[in-house]
Amino acid sequence: MTCALCSADAPLTDTPVTGGPDGASAALCGTCTDQITGTPDPDHWRCLAAAMWSENAATQVLAARMLDRLSEHDWARDLAGQLWLDDDTRAWVENIARDSGHRDSNGVPLMQGDTVVLIKDLPVKGASFTAKRGTAVRGISLVPDNPAHIEGRVEGQRIVILTEFVKKRI
Questions:
Q1: Most buried pick, 25, 49, 60, 68, via CB within 10 A?
Q2: Continuous H helices in 70-151
């Protein structure tokens, strides 16, 4: 079996795809899994030209979300423009940003795995450092019960950050 997104012949992990039917998942390699939650390498994701046509809706959703994250690249915008999804799958793709309510200081929807930048110095409670303005926080996690909070790593420590003090990096 190969990775649902990049077709790599590598060990696979069944990765849940949030925002849709319970138990929806796709079999992904470690590289794809790491980059979905972290900083994506645009060259790796050119594989989405094939993956976006998968018959597995979960794979289509992951491909569409990654194309959206890579929208600063012409090739990703071109592929996203070619992508056709039925209404249910399109709603699934957009479900995280619409339903989570997590928004940055400018009102831009935040999604799991986004990169944000701190817009002010933040003293970290319980730690002996201050998270400095301009610090990039990669691969954020959304706090499910509180749209005003996200989690991320700063100086190697996992912290909770108020969304009003971040700006989504595009």
A1: 60
A2: 74-82, 87-100
Q: 116-168 falls under which CATH superfamily?
A: SH3 Domains (2.30.30.40)
The pTM assigned to this predicted structure is: 0.58
**Amino acid (1-letter code) at residue 26:** A
Residues 118 and 134: beta-carbon distance below 8 Å: yes
Q: Tell me the two tokens of residue 84.
A: 């056709």
Calculate the alpha carbon distances from 97 to 7, 9, 27, 131, 154 in Å: 27, 32, 23, 26, 23
**Angstrom distance (rounded) from CA 43 to CA 119:** 30
CB 100 within 8 A of CB 159: no
Q: Which residues are bridge partners to 16 per DSSP?
A: 25
pLDDT digits (tens, 9 = 90+) for 45-78: 999 999 999 999 999 999 999 998 898 899 999 9
Helix (H) / strand (E) element for 96: namely: helix 87-100
